[in-house]
From TrEMBL:
GO biological process: ubiquitin-dependent endocytosis
Gene3D superfamilies tied to this protein: 2.60.40.640
The protein, known as: Arrestin-like N-terminal domain-containing protein
Pfam family, one: Arrestin_N
Annotated organism of origin: Trichocladium antarcticum
Compositional bias (Pro residues): 472-492
InterPro entries: Arrestin-like_C (IPR014752), Arrestin-like_N (IPR011021), Arrestin_domain-protein (IPR050357)
Length: 560
């Protein structure tokens, strides 16, 4: 016996609205009784954090006997079930089917939704136990006979949830956090002592980005002045001490004279230059995966200094902060990507002849050919994980022409130290950055969402102005009084743990799902593929989607 899942033209990764098609290939060496073939499309967001030894800030030791060393939290962000053999309309009490030796193929199809599933508490409360092929039933059989065993959705009600777009695949912190998607097949074998056959295939997922705001000329900036320290006077400019054995010069006390240097500059204490460096990004600040940063660097002269200022170093770092939450514990993991690092530069950004306020735009060739690494995932927020970004631009400026690459300070041992280039290294910081996946939503969906937003709020009618003569004001006409009616009692929403019961004669829907959102309803009307395979960017947020999980499984029954 062997089981495998063969996908039809699998892309590098899947995204929202994609239709995943494939077939389950079952090879048998003998006759087997098969009750059903069940395929599930699942996504899990798992976190695990160790309980601290002491309560932070209070110095109270925890009781190890009352709690485990590690807490787990598992969210079923995606959960779809389909019976592909026999037909879903087959009765739950149908007898098992005997399959002959050989190879058997069973086709399946799913569509990736927009939002996570665990945020729908009503659907989670109704999901659980044993269900029929066509829906839920309280009298389904046991041990794989006449029913489909699914996860207990009520366990998801113990956690707090948010309703957001499905997050990307992620395995960046082994043993602490991961987000996985996979297709799982279960072949039910009726019988008390026969174990069901299972197999799963991992997938990569990258979500569609939200609609971008319209382009504008506004920019977000981070700026700060780069001010140099005054240079010390040269020793040969100081007045020489005269010996008391010699008489004073009749010409009077001597004073330092300004001597010309080899390059024609006067050897007098010069005014230290001050340059304002500003980094600018389009507002709102949005970066895109696998694309360069749309950065502008501008140098502005602040004081009338007779000096030259050079750019000698630049380094651009993207900082990712991942918030890992597990029940009452929270930890922030910091990751850093060096986008570009250039040292030993000699780019003139300020001339002595430039007037105060002169701006110089640095050439973007220093960074525009360096896209974001393919390990950078888009910003996301889910129930127990979130990722946001910051940008840091480190700049190095030099007062005076810098040394040539490969020349050390030992070569200037005989020269005056005050004539050596003075360098200042300071960072420019953007505290809030969003990274988009680069997968734009379908234009039809964007237009439908905009049209819905325009019609959601009815226009306010114009206010009617009544003109009355000032000489004879008339009292306002009061409407006739109507008998006061008691408002109908408001119905409290049902508790998710205790869903409302059906009235006599009512029938429950097929799977009891909550009504979809407008975006999901529009997405169901669209047929894929939304994005051609050759147009999808590279993404390596997950190294191996089929490797074993590094997180210990949660309590039994949570991850069915």
């Amino acid at each position: 016996m062997s089981i495998r899942i063969a996908l039809d033209r699998p892309p590098e990764f899947y995204t929202n609205l994609d239709i995943i098609r494939g077939q389950v290939v079952l090879s048998l060496s003998r006759h087997e009784h098969i009750g059903a073939v069940i395929v599930k499309l699942e996504g899990e967001s798992r976190t695990a954090l160790g309980v601290p030894d002491e309560i932070l800030g209070m110095g109270i030791a925890r009781d190890r006997a009352s709690s485990s060393d590690t807490l787990h939290e598992n969210h079923k962000i995606l959960y779809k079930v389909a019976q592909i053999f026999p037909d879903e309309n087959t009765s739950a009490i149908a007898s098992p089917i005997v399959l002959n030796p050989g190879q058997h193929r069973f086709r399946f199809q799913f569509k990736f939704p927009f939002n996570n599933a665990c945020g729908n508490t009503e659907a989670m409360a109704k999901l659980g136990g044993v269900v029929n092929a066509g829906g839920f039933a309280s009298g389904a059989g046991l041990f794989g006979m006449g029913g489909i065993r699914v996860m207990d959705g009520t366990k998801q009600l113990l956690y707090s949830h948010v309703k957001k777009t499905l997050p990307p695949s992620f395995t960046g912190f082994p043993g602490e956090a991961e987000i996985r998607y996979y297709v799982k097949v279960t072949i039910q074998r009726p019988g008390l002592f026969k174990e069901n056959w299972r197999y799963q295939l991992g997938l990569k997922f990258l979500p569609i980005e939200p609609p971008r705001p319209p382009k504008s000329n506004q920019e977000a900036y981070a700026r700060r002045p780069f001010t140099f320290h005054p240079r010390a006077s040269r020793p040969d400019l100081q007045p020489k001490k005269r010996s008391p054995f010699f008489g004073r010069n009749s010409d009077g006390p001597s004073s330092p004279t300004a001597k010309g240097s080899a390059d024609g500059a006067l050897d007098v204490p010069a005014t230290p230059p001050s340059i304002e460096m500003s980094a600018r990004l389009p507002h709102p600040v949005l970066l895109t995966c696998n694309t360069p940063i749309p950065l502008r660097l501008i140098a502005k002269k602040l004081v009338p200094a007779n000096a030259e200022v050079y750019l000698v170093a630049i380094q651009i770092d993207l900082i990712g902060k991942t918030a890992v939450r597990c029940q009452d514990l929270l930890r922030t993991e910091v990751s850093r990507w060096v986008i570009t690092a250039r040292h030993g530069l000699s780019i003139l950004i300020s001339n002595p002849e430039d007037a105060v306020g002169t701006e110089f735009i640095l050439p973007d060739a220093l960074w525009n050919d360096m896209p974001l690494p393919n390990t950078v995932m888009p910003s996301f927020t889910t129930c127990n994980l979130s990722r946001d970004y910051q940008l840091e631009v480190k700049l190095g400026l030099a007062w005076g022409k810098p040394n040539a690459p490969g020349v050390s300070l030992l070569g200037h041992r005989g020269k005056d130290a005050s004539r050596l280039p003075q360098e200042v290294h300071l960072p420019l910081h953007f505290s809030t950055i969003e990274v988009y996946s680069g997968l734009s939503p379908p234009p039809a969906l964007v237009e439908a969402m905009r049209g819905r937003a325009a019609t959601a709020r009815p226009p306010i009618p114009p206010r009617q102005q009544q003109h009355h003569p000032l000489s004879s004001p008339t009292p306002p006409v009061l409407p006739p009084r109507r008998p006061v009616q008691q408002p109908p009692p408001q119905q409290q929403p049902p508790d998710a743990l205790y869903p409302p019961q059906l009235h006599p004669g009512e029938e429950e829907s097929a799977y009891g799902d909550a009504p979809p959102t407008y975006e999901e309803a529009m997405a169901e009307e669209m047929t894929g593929p939304m994005f051609p395979q050759e147009a999808r960017p590279a993404y390596s947020g997950m190294t191996n989607e089929n490797e074993p999980s590094t997180l210990l499984p949660p309590e039994k029954g949570q991850g069915r």
